[in-house]
Amino acid sequence: MGVKPILERQPDFPKEYLGFAQSAFFGGRTSAHIRKSPVPVVYTDFLSMYPTVNSHMNLWSFVTARKIEVVEHCQAEIEAFLRNLEPNDLFDTAAWKRLTAFVKVIPDGDVLPSRAKYSSETNDWQVAVNHLYSSDSEGLWFSLPDVVASVLLTGRVPKVVDAFRIRAHGTIPELEPTKLGGTIKVDPRQQDFFRVVIEERKSLSSRTDLSKVEKDRLDKALKVLANAASYGIYAEMNRQEKEDKVKVTCHGIDAEPFTCRVSHPDVPGEYCFPPLAALITGAAPLMLALLEHCVSELGGTYAMEDTDSMAIVATERGGLVPCKGGVHRMKGGQEAVKALSWKEVSRDIRSFRTAQPLSDGGSRIKPQD
After folding, report:
1. Residues 284-322, buried b or exposed e (16+ Cβ, 10 A)?
2. I want to staple 24 with a disulfide (CB 3.0 to 4.6 A). Which of 4, 141, 216, 343 is the partner?
3. Where are the domains of the chain?
4. If we measure between CA atoms, which residue out of 7, 14, 74 comes closest to residue 256?
5. How far apart are CA 1 and CA 211, in angstroms?
6. How many helices, marked H, and strands, marked E, lie in the chain?
7. Can you give the pLDDT at residue 364?
8. 270 — phi, psi (to 5°)?
């Protein structure tokens, strides 16, 4: 298609902002919300999560941009956006196109991702979403989608001390039409590549010119291509095995770079571009946070979530189900949580389908143990 790597065609992109974006990169959201208590659920998952949020934010315009501009110190604009944002606004893709920004906040009980050594056994750095507090007056960088998710889940706007937005200008002239698998036409000048892949995956079941084996093969190929091209290549880091420590220059939370010595430095992949990687992996948890908000508004809860899916506690008619630690009580005094009805879950799914292609996991609405 003639798409050259962003940093190859724009090598002077400010390194400090690459560092800020990289420090805001946390990856997918996974949680066990109800543990060691079997509950009936309806399992739902989003169709092509990463390509979907990519398309909603119109990130293809950055992939094909002649130049990407950094709009500095726009915290007043971001604060106004956060104050005026209503949950229902996120069912309109216009709101998602305004999420291509990064926010420096001083957390004070906000629900935000963080890295820490949560296990004394492994002593490994892990990522978690917590009620985060910080005494650091300098603040921490997060993607705007991550901050929006916090506003959804807490109902309040964090303390914003800085922000920057990225803006795409023009289109690179080398773009050329291509065919995926020799059959799927894509014109990168006129079409959003990620939307094309989503639509082709959705339409495979209705195609009569392909056998089942061919459909399965093409579906897997499109899925891998979509996830790699809409997320993976922008986050690619290759660990270099070194016997001795080497000196590297680091750009990150601090405004000024610093040097240190590391044993196994990472070398960015050819298409690596931290702002896109962090926006995509911030937007996917936002989609889950929006679903969690919808479930909570009905008084419901969920058993688990994983990157692009959620197991919503539900039964055919709804009502209380036994669950240790639940805030409700059964007639006999047993702790319980409220299960939504299948109809309520179905209504939530239909709400998402107005803007986001939410697939119902095995799309008949039925409970699974």
Report:
1. bbbbbbbbbebbeebebbbbbbebbbbbbbbbeebebbe
2. 141
3. 1-27+50-283
4. 14
5. 28
6. 12, 20
7. 31
8. -60, -40
